[in-house]
Amino acid sequence: MSASINLAPVRAARPMSWPLCATVFFLGNVLLWADRSNFSVATAVWSKQFAWSPSTIGTMLSAFSLGYLVMQPIGGWIADRLGPRRTIAGTMAAGRWRCC
Questions:
Q1: What is the pTM of this model?
Q2: How does 11-21 read in b/e, with b if 16+ C-beta sit within 10 Å?
Q3: Among 8-12, 19-23, 31-35, 42-46, which is the least confidently predicted range?
């Protein structure tokens, strides 16, 4: 048995567009900031509507941050395995799919 050798040329990665990356990251942070702000404002209405105690409100607000805590190591592992371009493209596609 002989081993086959792949002689196909390897394509170099395109250079990253830093202005585009900075814009996407900035807009993502603004969206997350707005979510956190609106969530804390909405808890005032929800606490009256559902008769939540202060400890329940604290649990709800903490649960929002718990997602960041859990997903940071997983996201880092995915970025190490797939690379930054595929990870960012995948998260953007997943966010688009989730929203619509």
A1: 0.46
A2: eeeeeeeeeee
A3: 8-12
SS (H, E, C) the chain: CCCCCCCCCCCCCCCCCHHHHHHHHHHHHHHHHHHHHHHHHHHHHHHHHHCCCHHHHHHHHHHHHHHHHHHHHHHHHHHHHHCHHHHHHHHHHHHHHHHC
Give the CA distances from residue 3 to residues 6, 8, 10, in Å, rounded to whole numbers and listed in that order: 10, 15, 20
Residues 6+ apart with CB under 8 A from 64: 35, 36, 39
Question: Quick count: other Cβ atoms within 10 Å of Cβ 90?
Answer: 13
**Average pLDDT value for the chain:** 81
Which amino acid, one-letter code, is at 29?
Answer: N
Cβ distance 64 to 36 under 8 Å? yes
Q: At which residue do the structure tokens 């969530």 appear?
A: 39
